[in-house]
Amino acid sequence: MTYPDSLLRRTLGERRIALVAWRLLVLQVAHPAVAAGMSDWSTYRAHPWRRVQHTMDSGRRLFFADLDSLRREVARLDRAHRRIHGTDASGRAYSAEAPEVRVWVLVTLYEAMTALRQLSGRPFTPAELDVLYGEFRATVAEFGLPDGLWPPTAADVPGYVERTIRERLEDGPEVRHLLYGILREAPRPGRLGRLGPAWPVLRALTAWTVATLTVADLPPAFRERFGIGRGRRAAALSWAAHRGARHVMTRLPDRWRYRVPPGADGPAVRHAPRHRRARARVRDTRPARLDAFFRQVIDQTGDGRIGVADLRAMAHNVCWPLELSAERESEVHAAFDTWWRQMSATMDADGDGRITRAEFVAATLAGVDRDPEYLTKGLHVAVRAMFRAADADGGGHLCADEYRALFGGTRVHPAELNDGFRELDVDGDGRITEEEFVLAFTGYFTGVGDSVPGARMFGRA
């Protein structure tokens, strides 16, 4: 286990580690098992910023928390990876639980730290590498992976990385998409604020910069094997970015040089009851809300249709920020399976296993208007499982922090989360009961106007 003054934490916690983040992802996804898992199970194409946030949160819990938090995070990752397996496009079986795959993914994180220093012109000394690798191995020992799969010493890591590149990695479509595609089509980050209208220009500039820097920084063996050139412009960008960042960051105060682990980053929630003025005219806002719910919440793959994979991804993303037992996590997945079966039976008109946005909106409106029990047969099952999963202490209510953990992330602004919480907390006691929670979802799906509890639970439509 590492300590606050460890070389590992100082290196991994420095803000300039972001310079090698995309390089790290490319090396990981170039492993065919990782690429297949991402292609079949991940929603990173539609939600790249959420994927980055999940990675950062997981890294914080692995390397910057206490031993109990580390072990809980390892258990969480074990449960998540247990579901990821299948057959890739070439007919090869893959599993995210394969020890050699997990070792590769973890070693690339250590290798990224050494690459950062090498690229900055101040490489670690052999003695520092021994310390860094020792701290790293002490932490990842909690994964229980066979010792024989790991490079024995820090001096053995470069050889292990080069052998893996030459013998196991592949330059597949997921790698090319990471390098040249995903950032060119990435949705606008939720917290871009006033710069939102400039996102198309910023996105193009970001995509070019990240791709150029990543290509320049990839290991020579990787570029050589897959025929990726490193032009003068890319080399110059790499030199300027890494050395410039080193000169600037090493002179900053620690509070600016190092990332502060995320905590309760939203403004405090006030719990005064809200009084709403009655409206003379009420417009039916359900279609707009259901449309927004489809686009922003339930269409996890971002392809304009929903299927069982989207519901599985939703269940995964409910469980991800919560520290659940295997039994409770299975309950969440089973509840979302129930919801999918109901949707499939009532919305999939052509029987192709996919539901369009128009089908979802129309069938939901017809269902709630026709059958008072419509939501209880699917949505409410999933919602109650969400509530019980988020109710960390089993007290039968959600506090503001538990609500943020469930609905937070990069898409919804903290102020909107606070507004949503206050709307549900109708008695102003600072907590939400299970029935209030279910009532809020019911109001979101059925309330004709915006004055019902839950209408702005996920922000404005």
TrEMBL record:
**Which residue numbers delimit the EF-hand domain?**
285-321, 335-370, 412-447
What InterPro entries does this protein's entry cite? Answer: EF-hand-dom_pair (IPR011992), EF_Hand_1_Ca_BS (IPR018247), EF_hand_dom (IPR002048), MPAB/Lcp_cat_dom (IPR018713)
MF terms from GO for this chain are: calcium ion binding; oxidoreductase activity
What protein name applies here? DUF2236 domain-containing protein
From what organism does this protein derive?
A: Streptomyces radicis
